[in-house]
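Researcher: Going back to the complex we discussed earlier. I've cleaned up the inputs and rechecked each line, so this should be the final set. Can you rerun the prediction on the complete assembly and write out the structure?
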Amino acid sequence: MTTSTQVADCALQAVRSLAVAGLLLSADIVSAQDAAIAAFKTVDSMEARVQGCATCHGQRGQGTSDEYFPRLAGKPAAYLYNQLLAFREGKRVYPPMNYLVAYLPDAYLKDIAEHFAKERPAFQAKQQTTADASVITRGATLATSGDPNKQVPPCITCHGPGLTGMEPGIPGLVGLRASYIVAQLTRWRTGNRQAARPDCMKRIADRLSDADVHAVASWLATQDPPADASPAKANLSRMPLSCGSQM
Amino acid sequence: MRKGTRNFFVIAIVTVLAIAGVIAFLMPGYLPVVPGVVAADPTTQTINKGEYLARAGDCVACHSAPGGKQFAGGRPMPTPFGNLYAPNITPDDETGIGQWTADDFYRMMHKGVSRDGTLLYPAMPFAAYTKVTREDSDAIYAYLMSVPPVNQKNRPHELRFPFNQRDLLIGWRTLYFKEGEYVADTTKSTQWNRGAYLVEGLGHCAMCHTAINRLGGSKTSQEFEGGMIPNQNWYAPSLTSNREAGLGNWSIKDITDLLQAGVSHRATVYGPMAEVVYNSLQYLNDADVEAMAVYLKDLPKRDSEAPPTSSARLVSPNVMELGRKIYAKQCFMCHGDEGKGYPPSYPPIAGNQSITMSSPVNSIRMVLNGGYAPGTKKNPKPHGMPPFSHILDDEEVAAVVTYIRVAWENSGTPVTPAQVSTLRTIIPE
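Model: Rerun complete. Updated structure for the full complex:
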């Protein structure tokens, strides 16, 4: 009796210390629930002004537990600005966003883009995948080596070796969840989402099968962020396809 | 010889300098810079005035498609009778109004009749524009003639039978259209009359702030008493009731701030009014906005319905407690624990007529969809509210909206989850 109680106590203590260690490790990882609640220090600040984004994208653009909404923090400012403009003009269609930014002038949208581009909040815990190992392998191949038979270049060529994007117009992919990536690639294939012409992403998306989209999204969603989540410098390497957003 | 050469050079240099001096004296050079504004020529003045008045009339909002060319038309206007498409009003000879004369334009503004004699649908606010003076109409015409022509064919309207029969408009006009330029009320000040001219004429405020009946008409007897905006699912509050957006006990400063900047210490604009401020009112000068404020504040107080009875205001304690908890978690940061907000950045909720007015539609929509105040010259970086539709279910939205409508001595009535549910689908995710 006594022994078993002691064992139980001991085990409980071990669990507790593990939990404490876990807490310490994740001290600056804001919990998913909290990320969606508006918070700021002073009213007259950009931090306060962008709380209109908080319930979907997190107070600092870190993303929330809702896996459809993308992380914004650290994406190149010009990419974010292009998206905000496209939402305002109705060129990128997502009614909740189209509605929110409808009456915001260019200069302010630029400020918002620059604000989130500078933010470096901790990443959300990476997604656990239920995809088969063979699917993940296919995804890894597409992302890091591409598929020469399909003329698909690897993601990392343009989206950066650490998948943190490239200045000025290519978004980071690390920290995005599979369902968001699948939805975006699908929208590109149907023409619902478009980038500046020539639209290189459209050309690539058209070359991917449904299975490819699922595979690459599953792999991307399980990648760890690099220590420095800043986007790669502009056009350090030659682009395999011509992209309007980099011109 | 040497001396002669030196003399020659001296004379030559003196001569060259003298000639240069004379030339410099005679050449016109740049006009001297005179501080202050140089008066523009009459054409420029007329076009400038027309541009300003076109802003006041908010022509651009309907006559431009999102992302399309300015004034080239094509924006769909959903109505209870089907879709209308605003026409091209650029001066393109073939597809726009390039061949219109100033007389044609005035007849259209004043009588609601197109160049070829067809009757306009009243989505074009000619019932208001009829009050515009000939001089102002001519200025707007001159401005529109000066914008780049765009060759873009008008899209035919998609109205259901019988509303696609334009002859029926004769009946509508008999019931709801009174032709005539604005006549000044001599018992009121010049400023009041200027405000009335802008509000009743180019501003066409009554288009939304007066209830629209089943025939798409507005009764003048209920002018400015508020109503649902058809197909937009926003409620345009009464401008005559102090329980709604009546401005009787507002300061002139708060009214002008709201109209021109989009934010004030009393409230913030959102929804369709944010569009009006963004496209139109922010560009009006201080004197005109103040004139509008003076007129609006002076509108006669009328309430189409009695204040809610105390039994209508009864709320179950469970709902109140759920609402309070959600408020503390989601709303407190920006609107404060007493609903006082941080005006003008975050509007107050306590004592805000927009929250307590009889229709809860706007409050429910703000909680579901959030919203940013418009970015304006006087408030270029507005604060905004995030959407909660993906975080709160119908019962929770109903509870928190009920809470803010009755807490802190607010005089509103409770709302039901069913009311929330019907508004949830307006902006699909």
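Model: Worth noting: Chain A is about 45% helix and 0% strand.
Researcher: Good, that matches what I expected from the previous run.
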